[in-house]
Amino acid sequence: MAVDVLLGLQWGDEGKGKIVDYLAPKYDYIARFQGGPNAGHTLEFDGIKHVLHQIPSGIFRDNKHNIIGNGVVLDPVIFMDEILQIEKKFSIELTNILSISTRAQLISPVHRLLDKVLEKNKGDNKIGSTLKGIGPTYQDKIGRHGLRVGEVLSENFNEKYKKQKSYHDNFLDKHYDQSFFNEERKFFESIEKLKKFKIIDTEYLMNKNINKGKNILAEGAQGTLLDIDFGSYPYVTSSNTTTAGACIGLGISPKKIGNVFGVFKAYCTRVGAGPFPTELFNDTGKKIASNGNEFGSTTGRARRCGWLDIPALKYSIMLNGVTELYMMKADVLSDFEEIKVCIGYNYNGNDINYFPSSIESENIVPIYRSFNGWTSKSNKAKKFEELEENFKSYVRFIEDEVGVKINLISLGPVREQTIYIN
Ligand code: GDP
Ligand code: IMO
Ligand code: MG
Predict the structure, then answer these.
(1) Residue 190 in contact with residue 76, Cβ under 8 Å?
(2) At what angle do helices 310-320 and 389-402 cross, to 10 degrees?
(3) From the CA of 266, which ligand is nearest?
(4) Mean pLDDT for the chain?
(5) Centroid of ligand 3 to alpha carbon of 104 (angstroms)
(6) CA-to-CA distance for 331 and 260, rounded, in angstroms?
(7) How far does residue 13's CA lie from ligand 1's centre (Å)?
(8) Which residues have their alpha-adjacent CB atom under 5 A from ion ligand 3?
(9) 275: CA distance to ligand 2 center in Å?
(10) Going by C-beta distance under 8 Å and a sequence separation of 6 or more, which residues neighbour residue 331?
(11) Which of 328, 342, 332 is nearest to 286 (CA)?
């Protein structure tokens, strides 16, 4: 009677979508618990590549029920676009296999506009937001004047929208233009379509099914180092991306959490601004980016690349209570002569082995350990035993350093390019 949680341990884009889709046949329910369309979760199967932003990644497996929990922020325009694309491309009828929480917050055109204006006003201190309105929507939620999905069913939804918008009119007045009014029109059209979905108190659905012994997987978005409390603040997203966020974002007790699957890349990437101790600015960084095709799934921006950071990984494992580690994109590191791993930092002149709460890139210098590389022959392996010795040493070194077993190694974007280790 437990909910398993799958989440990212770095700065997002670890490959969560691929693994949720891979694991989904074992589960009855897949539930998103935080974030919104800032997420881009990529799935590849049967020669098709598909990126999901709002919809949980269990959608392509038969008979799985998918839930958008109360902790999520939902953009009805993006959501309906996604639904239409999927229905057209895959001929799946989604209204019966998707439930949305009455308590999830609605992203409106006002939030997207606020995101744009606030980012612009930050000048050199831009976060590099995806500009999907995430921060302003969570701000309104905490400010206690957010609009919730359940309210779309109310007869006076238009008045509620106007009231909510009025909180921002003074600040935004000069930015309301024709394109904003067009977005507002699309917003209301999408709201009408959204009403066809099951909009329910999903906390009851969750708990009823936990008590029935159903298998539930909670799907994280973003990554631990983007968590609003524990990430590299202020260069973070606006939700709790950690295991605790799954309890709040789905309405379940911490006692109901089972396994926690921590997904990480065999190296590190980051998209957007903010500190990144192991970032590489040389040809090695470029080679990782090109081998890994490191471009954002939501914005198309180039991702910054660097070596694996063990203190950061240990920190994320600690915060989340990770029980199994899943190492992604290990194929990207093949054919490197030397591979480095950061095992500590020199921070303001002192050697440390933890992830500090405040990092300026200038005052933190990674301490590396070197490994001999392996070849792309390993990328065809179907079992751990078939990997080259240098690859296996890399895996065992990480396990020894962090004290948690690596139970899955991903060697390509496609479902089948996955080794599960019991
Ligand atoms: P998510 O946000 O955590 O779901 O990750 P994204 O989908 O944003 O980014 C991961 C990218 O890497 C996607 O393009 C995936 O198709 C791809 N990918 C996932 N696993 C692997 C892997 O093991 N090897 C390679 N080469 N690509 C992978
Ligand atoms: P998935 O789920 C990678 C980053 C943005 C920016 C910061 C704040 O695909 O792993 P926001 O739009 O949330 O205000 O942006 O967080 N960011 C992500 N980076 N993967 C994501 O999601 C991200 N979602 C947000 O680039 O630096
Ligand atoms: Mg992504």
Answers:
(1) yes
(2) 50
(3) 1
(4) 96
(5) 21
(6) 24
(7) 7
(8) 13, 40, 297
(9) 14
(10) 291, 376, 378, 379, 410, 411, 412, 417
(11) 332
